[in-house]
From TrEMBL:
It comes from the Bacteria. Transmembrane segments: none annotated. Pfam families: CBP_BcsQ. SUPFAM superfamilies: P-loop containing nucleoside triphosphate hydrolases. This is Cellulose synthase operon protein YhjQ. InterPro entries: Cellulose_synthase_operon_BcsQ, DNA_Partitioning_ATPase, P-loop_NTPase.
Amino acid sequence: MVLVVVSSPKGGVGKTTLVANLAVALRRRGRQVTAVDFDSQNALRFLLAPNHEDDLGVARCTARGLPWSAALVGGIDGVRVAPYGEASTAERLRMKDMLVQEALSEALSGLARSPDEIVIADTTPGEGRMQERLEALADIKLIVLLADAGSMALVPTYRDGLMLRPLSERPDTFGVLNQVDPRRRLSRDIADFISVNAPERFIGVVHYDEALAEAAARGEPVVGAAPGSVAALDIDMIAGRLDRLTAPGSY
């Protein structure tokens, strides 16, 4: 199993949409992919398995002592999805308390069908115990930031300024700059700053594209709905890098 953990310092940066699209793009490159939702908003299933109506997910499986494979559903283009699912407050708290690192590793490993299957985890925004445990197990970590003042204000302090440090310090952690709009000066300046000061740290840039929002509103990944769109091409480029980074013998 290759674990890719996707996080963000704050909400509203398009993280879940990116996770769904990366999962499909990697599957289209021939990789086996399972996407796991660790966010109680339970939004990932709407993008990858829009017709799925069962309320069972990893949270309730954890509370009931069931393997996470019991929550797996088939998604778009053959991506498998383990939704967070419906859960009471008690079940959500129980999941956070029960999943010590060893148990979390076992639960994730039970989802993989082969050593090189990619398990991509969508996490809650910010930092917390679950985030810390997941990242301790991850082969690759992606941090999603918007090309706006709010995200950039967090960069110097988030993860102790990791996103501006040389890649050699944490070669398994990469940034993704999302919704870059060249028509807006600030967005353009931020993208230019990143390209000059942290080019190795950022695995890719996803440009602002209405096709992405339109596809998400229909419950579709843009890489399938509009494969020639700017956003789809950007995401596919990132998926290509992930594919190479996680190829057998690379990790």
